[in-house]
Amino acid sequence: MEPVKPSPEAAPAPAGEVLVEAEGLSKGFGPVRAVQDVGFQVRRGELVGFLGPNGAGKSTTMRMLTGYLRPDTGAARLAGLEVSDPAARRRLGYLPEHTPLHREMRVDRFLDLAATLHGLAGGTRRDAVARVVDRCDLEGYAHRRIHTLSKGYRQRVGLAQALVHDPDVLVLDEPTSGLDPREIVRIRDLVARLAQDKTVLLSTHVLPEVEEVCRRVLILSGGRLVADGTPEELAAAEGERLVVEVADGPGGADLAAALAGLDGVREAVEVPPLRGGMARCALVVGSRREAAAEVQDLARSRGWPLLELRHELATLEQIF
After folding, report:
1. Are strands 216-221 and 73-78 parallel, antiparallel or unpaired?
2. What is each CA distance from 68 to 96, 134, 248, in whole angstroms?
């Protein structure tokens, strides 16, 4: 993919205050350029998925956005303030990939410490701890020592410490990493609930998670921003897709070769057949209606019984 460049004809940005801004962020470690000229904005009320392969620069970008790393060039801002400004940091909640917890402490005492470090005191601090215990579904666990909890509940404690000072922005780096499927669903649902009144930037490798909860996706590759849009917009940019399966006729490679020769088909890729079919292909086409008609005509002329002829949107996994 090529780096994203703003288009003068792009749709206007959604209404709302810009709460997260990366402007030309670049960072190198020795000869390695981890992040190169990355720029984007996240507005109030957005839940944005931040994707990229290992080594793409996601964690480095997030650490610059949260003030843990200083960029070589460019600027990172929260609500218009440089991230180094204490007033900006007060509006930020950050959950790094490896959650920093005092594991010998009780959950409630750790959250009380986090609230104290954020400047909360007295009844305000007690109310804040009670609020995040409730919001992160930690009732019944507040008096447990953190090291006795499952990894899923330790992640909830990490989310609670990121929320205890009631920030406007949450930056979550791989919040479901290493969790079992049940805990992944629980944390995903919790993040979706938090996004109802927080602006969230979510980095994850679990692509169905992004498709479920994020209305906008940023993709990094090689330290550069290469895609920015809704999942539907990114899918549309990949082209229309058809899935074709035949019950009898050529093998998969031969079917792909025959379909690739149709005028309306840009690409035909053999995929494993389902439901006992003989061969199945995924097609990238210019117009699904025209290509579907061509596929039907070809199948009819060759005597291939069609089991499936279906339009589908490209998944985030295919785009990725």
Report:
1. unpaired
2. 10, 29, 60
User: Cβ-count burial of 122 within 10 angstroms (0-12 exposed, 13-18 middle, 19+ buried)?
Assistant: exposed
pLDDT digits (tens, 9 = 90+) for 137-186: 999 999 999 999 999 999 999 999 999 999 999 999 988 888 888 888 88
What is the reported pTM? 0.74
What's the farthest any 2 CA atoms get from each other in the chain? Answer: 81
Which tokens belong to 244?
């074709």
Write the CA distances from 177 to 56, 110, 141, 173, integer angstroms: 17, 22, 22, 9
Do 79 and 19 contact (CB within 8 A), yes or no? yes
Contact 137, 156 (CB under 8 A): yes
How do 224-229 and 47-51 pair as beta strands?
unpaired
pLDDT, tens digit, 9 for 90 and up, residues 80-118:
999 999 999 899 999 988 888 999 999 999 999 999 999
CA distances from 289 to 271, 294, 297 (A): 21, 9, 12
Sheet holding 306-312, edge to edge: 265-271, 279-285, 240-246, 306-312
